[in-house]
Amino acid sequence: MITFENVTKKYADGNTAVDSLSFDIHKGEFFVLIGPSGCGKTTTLKMINRLIPLTDGTIFIDGKKISEYNIHELRWNIGYVLQQIALFPHMTIEENIAIVPELKKWDDATIKDRVTELLDMVGLDPDTYRNRKPSELSGGEQQRVGVVRALAADPDIILMDEPFSALDPISREKLQDDIIALQQNIKKTIVFVTHDMQEALKLADRICLMKDGKKVQLGTPTELMEKPANEFVREFVGNTNKPAVPINLADIMQPLTETDPVPTVTLSNSSLSHEILEQLSAHEVVGITEDEQLIGIVNRQMVIRYFSEHLQERGAING
Ligand code: ADP
Ligand code: MG
């Protein structure tokens, strides 16, 4: 769908921002560009819709060089969401969303229906929101409008440059969930820039990790985690790939109660075992024995509470 062939961008000051980059982005794919600040992500993204001209190499969309497309046709068929909320302040939400459909000369009724549909899609009541000004919306709501504005004219490709990074963690999380749900329905080709590996792992079909304008590794989230190409990848994927730490049973176990718990599991070491969890899936309470003495109980509630707190800390479950 989108092909980069040895794409290079040198800025006028001689800085090589993107250095002979090659990859294929598949149709309907959620493709994430990630890397440290200054590694060339924004430059890469903006070359796709010709906001930045290439110095060398070629970008193809559907087999045709981007330089051969009519610039309006190209831009109108590529949605673009920026990091900073970029709604026009004097225009209503409806007018903001309608910009590209207006340019494409859709008729008024079609545009109005489309705005209704899009606001509904991201949980903003159309009657409440369509005539408001951006300043009357929260940051999260404005960015949601920014996202649907990019979808308005039904483009095949959507480019998103750190669209959620300015938001508070709760809005960010919500919008990430929204975009996953949205993508399952609309199946667009999305090129999404972030510097946040958690976000990349959550959203991406494939991730391209960049450094100094070059591709370091391209693969699925699992591939990057399980087979990092080098130390840089390993570090960037970072704490999401720490070796699993055993769960200390002492953090979960409670003192014995009057009644003898059934069943019991014999302690083999000091950590939570698969056997204990197996028993808990069938029983409310499990007794723990050591040297044939009952030393405590583990109940479902405690285990679930522990998992809830600790897995959230580790980013394994949503906040
Ligand atoms: P990222 O989005 O990954 O942070 P950018 O694509 O914005 O990186 O920038 C890549 C490199 O190109 C950086 O070193 C940046 O300073 C440089 N750069 C970006 N825009 C320009 C410009 N207009 N002129 C000169 N250098 C630029
Ligand atoms: Mg950038």
Which characteristics define this entry?
319 residues; alpha/beta; Rossmann fold; CBS domain Like; 2 domains; six-stranded mixed sheet; four-stranded antiparallel sheet; 13 helices; 13 strands; binds adenosine-5'-diphosphate; binds magnesium ion
Structural features, described:
The protein has 319 residues and is an alpha/beta fold. It folds into two domains: 2-237, P-loop containing nucleotide triphosphate hydrolases (Rossmann fold), CATH 3.40.50; 249-318, CBS domain Like (Alpha-Beta Complex). Helices cover 36% and strands 24% of the residues. It has helices at residues 41-48, 71-76, 93-97, 99-103, 108-121, 126-129, 139-151, 169-186, 197-203, 221-226, 231-237, 274-282, 300-313, and strands spanning 2-10, 16-25, 30-34, 56-61, 64-65, 78-81, 157-161, 189-194, 206-211, 214-219, 264-266, 285-290, 293-299. The strands form three sheets. It has a six-stranded mixed sheet with strand order 6-7-8-3-9-10, with helices on both faces. A four-stranded antiparallel sheet has the order 2-1-4-5, with helices on one face. It has a three-stranded mixed sheet with strand order 11-12-13. A hairpin with a 2-residue loop joins strand 12 and strand 13 (293-299). The mean pLDDT is 90. The structure holds adenosine-5'-diphosphate and magnesium ion (MG). Magnesium ion is lined by residues 41-42.
